[in-house]
Amino acid sequence: MKHFIKNMVTIRCKMVVKAELEKLGIRYTAIELGEVDLEELTPEKHKQLKEVLYKDGLELLDDKKAMLIEKIKAVIIEMVHYSDAIPPVKFSKYLSQKLNYDYTYLSNTFSEVKGITIEHFIILHKIEKVKELILYDELNLGEIALKMCYSSSAHLSNQFKKVTGLTPSYFKSLKQQRQIALDKI
Q: Which DSSP string corresponds to 125-165?
C-alpha cells in the first residue's frame, strides 16, 4: 500500500525513512522520493511511523490533495535535480504523463494549496540547479542553458536575474570573490 511523505525530497531523506521503517519492523517493497510502498499498517504502527517521521522533519500524509502536491513536487525535483537531462517535452505534458492526471487539474490543485503556480515552482528549482552548475564551473552559460532546456543563454540570464536579482556572471564573480578572500587568510 502506497503512503506519501511530505518533505521527502532528497536521497538522504530516503535513507532516513528506510532506517526508521527498519527500526519499527515495518516491511516495505519500494521507497521513492515522496512515497513508500508498505505492508498494511495497524493503527498503532501508523501512529508510531507518523511520530518518528515527524521527528525527522517528515510528515506522513493522509489528505489526498496534500499527497498529490507531494507527488508533483517529487516529480519536479527529480526531473530538475536528479536526472541527467531535463526531458525535451513540455513540463505540463511530462507531469500529466508521470502522474496520470489532467494538467489543468494538477495546476489548479497545486496553485490552490501552495499559493504559486507549478510553472513558478519549476522555475525556482531550475534556477537553483543553474546556481549549482555555475558554482561547479564546468559548463559555460550556453551549455547550462542547453542542459536546462532554455531557448538561449539570454533567456536563462533574464530569468536568473528576475528570480535572484543578480546576473549569472555577477553571481559567479561572488564565488570568485569569496575564494580570493579565503585565500588571503
A: HHHHHHHHHHHHTSS-HHHHHHHTT-S-HHHHHHHHHHHHS
Could you tell me the pTM of the whole model?
Answer: 0.72
- List pLDDT tens digits, range 113-152: 889 999 999 999 999 999 999 998 889 999 999 999 899 9
Q: How far apart are CA 66 and CA 146, in angstroms?
A: 33
Q: For the chain, which domains are there?
A: 1-62 (3.30.70.100), 121-183 (1.10.10.60)
Residue 74: CB partners within 8 Å, gap ≥ 6?
8, 9, 32, 33, 34, 35
CA 6, 36, 38, 19 dihedral sign is negative
